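Please, structure for the following, as C-alpha cells.
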Amino acid sequence: MVEYDATILDRVFHALADPTRRLMLERLAAGERKVGELAAPFAISLAAVSKHVRVLEQAGLVERRIEGRAHYCRLRPEPLAEAEQWLSFYEGFWSQRLNTLEAALKADPRGKSAKERQDG
C-alpha cells in the first residue's frame, strides 16, 4: 500500500464530512468567491461561514486572500487528489472482492460454470 500523510488525510476527510463545507467546495470549483458569496445560500451567520472556511483552509482545500475588507476564497484541489489516491486502493480491493463473488455465484456447486450448465 502507498504511504500517505495521515495528518493531511485526517484534515481532508474531516473537512469533507460536513455537507456545508462540501457545498462550499462545489461552489468554489466554479471559481474564486468572496466569503459573503459563499455564505449566501446558507442560513448561517458569517461567523459560522468563517469557521467552515477555516476548516477548509486547515485541510489545504481552500486558499484565502484579502483585498481591503474583502476576503476571497479559491479551491486548492491538490489535497483531494491525495484523498482520491488513498480511496483508489480500496476501490481495487472491493473490485477484486466483487469479481471473486461474481465468479463464485456463476459457478455450479458441483464445479461447473454457468456456460457449461447451458451447454449441457
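Helices lie at 6-16, 19-28, 35-39, 46-58, 78-106, 114-119. The chain is about 60% helix and 10% strand.
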